[in-house]
Amino acid sequence: MSTPSAALGLQELVDSVADLAGAPTTLEDRDLHLVAASGHDDDVDEVRRTSILRRRSDTRVQQLFATFGIARAARPLRVPGDPAAGRMARWCVPVRWRGVTYGYLWLLDPDGRVEPARLEGLHDVVDAVAAALAHRSRTADRTTWAVGELLSPDAAARAGAVEELAREAVLPAGELRVVALAPAGGEAAGPVNAWVLPRTVLVAPVGSRAALLVPGTVPAAEVAARAAGALVAQHPAGVAAGVSGPVAVDAAHTGWRQAGAALRAALSAVGGGPRGAAAVRGWEDLGTLRLLALAEADALAAVAVDQRARRLLAGDPELVRTARTYLDLAGSAQRTAAALGVHRQTLYHRLRRVRETSGYDLDDGADRLALHLALTLADLA
Question: Nearest 5°: phi and psi at 56?
Fold first, then answer.
């Protein structure tokens, strides 16, 4: 069989490794994100299955494999299996370019059929894999800081970022959307698996969050959901994503503020949902919550939640739920009673108690607006 060339895509190269070695093969980058996987027949274990489904190796498995010295291995290294744990033996082939490790090829070999000599013969195709990973990694290294600068409030920094991204020929054409990602637990997002995203999407850490620049031709909400879903494996409490409205490249910093507001709303949704959830909110659907682009929820709530709202919030939770549902449904008694599962007379009794407890006049438009905003921001604060 002819040797694959570096011009082939990574999926084709991984398929070639599997074909030449005669073993199911996966390729992971140095962050152990799944890059590509060959097909397989019956040779599959839980490690491979999890890596393919989650697009990332399990953290405990990563730590285990590290103890076998994969980071220091100068040549293919055989990692023993553990039948009791459902883990098959496999070969680890470090993928290095000019002495720098960019990833690992994993070849399942439970029966010891893959001979070391055959692996040594994969030198050319492994070099092609290494060159492709190195090129993508180095491009990402050069553009990561530029993405952060593009989102900066400093005009000079943004101008320099535009020049750098244009020089690297990765500047999105036309309008774009900005995505902000953060775990529900408050920790740093960590590296996003860029291999699950379109090549035209730029990824960078910005503080403890992750930022994506999504060209206008790519569905940003879908990209945000995919990126958030890939991060859930590392953050079991859940991950939230906020998506900006369309903005010009030189207004990406405005999009970052919009994405941040949507992210805060999405974090509230994750906090109230099941563990391991991924929530996405868009700027265009936030309504009054666009105020979150101006200040944190706590600061806004300190202004919007007056003494009347505090009295209501400190009282009967059923009255709070009734008021919130009634206001969310535009003051429709019929729909509110149906949503709460109560008789309409019971609803009217509760609304009277809301008035008596808080002092808000629910027949007054200004009072209804003030209470609705106070309850909404209190949820987020």
Answer: -165, 145
